[in-house]
Amino acid sequence: MKVRASRLRRRVALWAQRAATPLDRRLTERGWEQPFVTDPLATPLRPRAGLRRIRAWERRYGYSLPAGLRTWLAISDGLYGADGPLIHPLTAIGPMIPFASVPDLVVQPESWFELGNPGRETVCIDLGYRWPGGDCPIFVSGDDERGTSPRLVAPSFDAWFVRLLAEGGREYWFDSDFVSLGDPWAEHRHHAPKPPLSERLMPLAPRVLPLMHPGADDRSIATMLGVTRGDVEAIFRHLQHAAGP
């Protein structure tokens, strides 16, 4: 256990140095890493993901990972807590699976990715924009069965990661006094660029608008307009973003 704790402590210190990110003072105290290794079989760290694999992921999805996350994955391919992956290994970081309904959202942004699944709700990252004064913001998915909505919990990966470590890996965003940064979809529409629409599809947008709603049948709309379902999705993305603040 001491060896695993020491290894985690050294890896986090290395990450902070490479990412040029100051650590919470709690992470300078002895024993902060104990919640991650209380189980004799716990292995919070994983072999690193090489930069070649990280670049391949970015090419595949068309988005750059924030520097702090890239740095951590190059040190440890994920991070595991008592109840699951706080940070997924690179191969499991993929498009977010929705668990909660979002008003006015017809097609989920392509920039929303599931980052981890520590227990009660999935942790996600929006790679579509940079939060003012931060980086790609972190949000939690919400869950209709639990009656919770998606909400932003940190302005950047670095801020979220440092506090997560300082809190012993627990889902601190469920604390009664925690104040979220807002609604992920509203902030995405406010900060992210509007998805472009080609000149070919632009004339069809007024015909699609009255048909656009959560659960809309894109197949029947595509058939009616004589276009592909991908074309309809592109129109949806453009119109739903334009309707935002």
Give the helix/strand class.
alpha+beta
| CATH topology annotation of the largest domain | SMI1/KNR4-like
CATH architecture of the largest domain: 3-Layer(aba) Sandwich
Intertermini distance: 51 Å
CATH class of the largest domain: Alpha Beta
CATH-wise, what's the superfamily of the largest domain?
SMI1/KNR4-like
Global geometry: elongated
Instruction: Outline the low-pLDDT stretches.
Output: none
SSE run: HHHEEEEEEEHHHHH
> Averaged pLDDT, please?
92
The strand line-up of the biggest sheet is 3-4-5-6-7
Strand content: 5-15%
Largest sheet: 5 strands, antiparallel
Helix segment tally: 8
Q: Give the beta-strand count.
A: 7
Q: Roughly how much helix do the residues carry, as a percent range?
A: 25-40%
Number of domains: 2
Alpha carbon gyration radius: 20 Å
Keywords:
alpha+beta, SMI1/KNR4-like, two-stranded antiparallel ribbon, 8 helices, elongated
Can you put this structure into words, describing what you see?
The chain has 2 domains: 2-191, SMI1/KNR4-like, CATH 3.40.1580; 202-242. Helices cover 33% and strands 10% of the residues. It is built from 8 helices and 7 strands, in the order αααβββββββααααα. The protein has helices at residues 2-19, 51-61, 67-73, 157-166, 184-191, 205-208, 218-225, 229-242, and strands at 79-81, 84-87, 94-95, 112-116, 123-126, 138-140, 151-154. The strands form 2 sheets. Strands 3-4-5-6-7 form a 5-stranded antiparallel sheet. Strands 1-2 form a two-stranded antiparallel ribbon. A hairpin with a 6-residue loop joins strand 4 (112-116) and strand 5. Helix 1 runs antiparallel to helix 3 (67-73) and helix 7 (218-225) crosses helix 8 (229-242). The mean pLDDT is 92.
